[in-house]
Specification:
It is built from 22 helices and 18 strands. By secondary structure, the protein is α+β, with helices and mostly antiparallel strands. It folds into four domains: 3-127, STAT transcription factor, N-terminal domain (Transcription Factor, Stat-4); 136-249 and 271-329, Glutathione S-transferase Yfyf (Class Pi), Chain A, domain 2 (Up-down Bundle), CATH 1.20.1050; 338-426 and 434-499, Sandwich (Immunoglobulin-like); 504-687, SH2 domain (SHC Adaptor Protein). Strands 1, 3, 5, 7 and 8 form a five-stranded antiparallel β-sheet that branches. A five-stranded mixed β-sheet has the order 16-15-14-17-18. A four-stranded antiparallel β-sheet has the order 6-4-9-10.
Length: 702
């Protein structure tokens, strides 16, 4: 309920935006009277793209209706009677609206809650003046964009007013022109009159005609000036539209796509598209209004041709505005949910494409169909250079056609591909040492739709992030390396799918840390010491100073093509093995700080020799992928007074599937203190498996 209390404090534009979220699809009264219940439900646990989740969504709908009916029953008093009827009506309305499509209710409520949260957050940041420099910069950018929209709105309103004045002036001109033609006709008919009367009438009519013709000449010149001035104003507005469109499409949307790409490596969620969509829709509205104005100017010019450059000017304006709207429509056809970047054949996968202006240009009135095909890197290059007129394919995707659906509650037009499957793949000839897991493909989504009653037809295409196709799970780690390198180091606007052959070591550290934190679901990433350890492994270095590695570069070959010295695996394969082991079995221990991990054998010895006997630490195995070993200090049983550091054979996923790490540490009585000096039970006891006798006792007591 806390969110609803805050939402009610919104003011001005934010309040209007919040109110606009509600309507017949979900009345604001329902939000108000069921605020606490709505905010306590697990809406995010429902996967909207999974039809199997419909049962869960149906349960939420039924519970919502039941809560509304319950709330209606407890209303009393004179005011309560009306409220009781109203809430009962809303319960029936929501039941009938969403009974056959309960997932749409969940989609609607999720959209409302996310939008409210965003509006409240923006209002909080604006009032507190805090939130860091990044938030200030973001707010400034948004403010500049909104100011530019206000300028465009005023400019468009001004040209609309001027156009109406021009139209009225032209209509009056035509009336006067017709009057002049009538005078001319009267003069021509004077020949049948007697000479005296004819002369008198002729003088009057000629004087009248001279006055009207003089007015027409002056007014024609004025009309032409009006037209030229209006064309100049339209040119300025189009310049502002182009500038605003560049900011939104080439800066804001590109940044969103970059965040989406980094999210593939475990970066923060790219964020919703609601703000971007609202900007794109405003652009669409303004562009269309200006286009209609230019068309009306053309009609006026055809209705009353006057000497001058107007025809050419309007033709140029029309071509320019068509280019602007074309760029908007083609650029806002985007992939909201990317297909998996490691794609296994014969395995179901999903993706979602969205048109950010779909609700504004009436595209949704005739929902377009979208087709997905898989293409190679070379085919993608040809597509972007417009060298390929028809879409070639490098494989066969099942269930690759989908009709875009308009969701009225959220105002989105999107196509959800839920059950695609890559049946087969056609590989290209590989270069040199390149393996199949280095070959990149992309899923091409294409569609065709018209706007303005088939006036303009657009063929739109968008490419997914690069995907690596595998046929067996054993290829997964090498394919993930290709994807991680591409996501981390791809340059904006690159030729598909070129990446640098080598990067600075700190750049790779950032990518590895992002990946590691995401897999551990933890704020505890890789420390400077961890990264020094990884640098030593990657470069066979011995320095313990991170500054010594700062300006070093690591190549793709060093990362995942060449084996580490004396090993049969690459740097990435070793690191990925650690991540997989930790993710599956040891995540809580990492997050507790119990695993040092990134420590070599010699470092472990140096650290433990200064500690009491029975002190131990956990370090990743150097010799085995996905192995962790226990090193501990104890007396040498063969030589009195001598102490040694011992290392157990590494444990792997297979071992932890049989018995957990905590239980294994519990079993080893000679392990007493976790480095540096924590009693082992203090750290691991909460993870021990209770003895069987405890289960029996508990069962008896029940």
């Amino acid at each position: 309920m806390a969110m609803w209390i805050q939402a009610q404090q919104l003011q001005g534009d934010a309040l209007h935006q919040m109110q606009a979220l509600y309507g017949q699809h979900f009345p604001i009264e329902v939000r108000h009277y069921l605020a606490q219940w709505i905010e306590s439900q697990l809406w995010d646990s429902v996967e909207l793209d999974n039809p199997a989740e419909e049962t869960k969504a149906k349960r939420l709908l039924d519970n919502l209706v039941a809560e509304l009916q319950k709330k209606a029953q407890v209303q009393g008093g004179e005011d309560g009677f009306l409220l009781k009827i109203k809430l009962g009506h809303y319960a029936s309305q929501l039941k009938s609206t969403y009974d056959r499509c309960p997932l749409e209710l969940v989609r609607c409520i999720k959209h409302i809650l996310q939008s409210e949260q965003r509006l409240v957050q923006e209002a909080t940041n604006a009032s507190s003046g805090s939130g860091g420099q990044a938030m200030d910069t973001l707010s400034q950018r948004h403010q500049q964009i909104n100011q530019a929209f206000e300028e465009l709105r005023l400019a468009t309103q001004e040209t609309e007013n001027e156009l109406r004045k021009l139209q009225q002036s032209q209509e009056y001109f035509i009336i006067q022109y017709q009057e002049n033609m009538r005078i001319q006709a009267q003069l021509s008919s004077l020949s049948s009159l007697p000479p005296t009367e004819r002369t008198q009438r002729e003088t009057t009519l000629q004087s009248k005609r001279a006055t009207v013709e003089a007015w027409l000449a002056r007014e024609a010149s004025t009309l032409q000036k009006y037209r030229l001035d209006l064309a100049e104003q339209h040119q300025k507005t189009l310049g502002l539209l182009r500038k605003q469109q560049t900011v939104i499409l080439d800066e804001e949307l590109i940044q969103w796509k970059r965040r989406q790409q980094l999210a593939g490596n475990g970066g923060p969620n790219e964020g919703g598209l609601d703000v971007l969509q609202s900007w794109c829709e405003k652009l669409a509205d303004l562009i269309w209004q200006n286009r209609q104005q230019i068309r009306r100017c053309e009609h006026l010019t055809q209705q009353l041709p006057l000497p001058g450059p107007m025809v050419e000017l309007l033709s140029k304006l029309n071509a320019d505005i068509t280019d602007i709207i074309s760029a908007l429509v083609t650029s806002t056809f985007i992939i909201e949910k990317q297909p998996p970047q490691v794609l296994k054949t014969q395995t179901k996968f999903a993706a979602t494409v969205r048109l950010l202006v779909g609700g504004k240009l009436n595209v949704h009135m005739n929902p377009p169909q979208v087709k997905a095909v898989i293409v190679s890197e070379q085919q993608a290059k040809a597509l972007l250079k417009n060298e390929s007129t028809h879409s070639e394919s490098s494989g066969e995707i099942l269930n690759n056609n989908c009709v875009m659906e308009y969701h009225q509650a959220t105002g989105t037009l999107s196509a959800h591909f839920r059950n695609m499957s890559l049946k087969r793949i056609k590989r290209s000839d590989r270069r040199g040492a390149e393996s199949v897991t280095e070959e990149k493909f992309t899923v091409l989504f294409e569609s065709q739709f018209s706007i303005g009653g088939n006036e303009l037809v657009f063929h739109v295409k968008t490419l997914s992030l690069p995907v690596v196709v595998i046929v067996h799970g054993s290829q997964d780690n090498n394919a993930t390396a290709t994807v991680l390198w591409d996501n981390a180091f791809a340059e904006p606007g690159r030729v598909p799918f070129i990446v640098p052959e080598k990067v600075l070591w700190p750049q790779l550290c950032e990518a590895l840390d992002m990946k590691y934190k995401a897999e551990m679901h933890s704020g505890r990433g890789l420390s400077d010491d961890n990264l020094v350890f990884l640098a030593q492994k990657a470069f066979s270095g011995s320095s313990n100073n991170s500054e010594d590695y700062r300006n070093m570069t690591i190549s793709w070959a060093q990362f995942n093509r060449e084996s580490l010295p004396g090993r049969n695996f690459t740097f990435w394969q070793w690191f990925d093995g650690v991540v997989e082991l930790m993710k599956k079995h040891l995540k809580p221990h990492w997050n507790d700080g119990a695993i040092l991990g990134f420590v070599n054998k010699q470092q472990a010895q140096d650290m433990l020799m200064s500690k009491p006997n029975g002190t131990f630490l956990l370090r990743f195995s150097d010799s085995e992928i996905g192995g962790i070993t226990i090193a501990w200090v104890a007396e040498n049983p063969n030589k009195s007074g001598e102490r040694l550091v011992w290392n157990l054979l590494p444990y792997t996923t297979k071992d932890f599937s049989i018995r957990s790490l905590a239980d294994r540490i519990s079993d080893l009585n000679h392990l007493l203190y976790l480095y540096p000096d924590r009693p082992k039970d203090e750290v691991f006891a909460k993870y021990y498996t209770p003895p069987l006798c405890m289960f029996i006792d508990l069962h008896k007591s029940q």
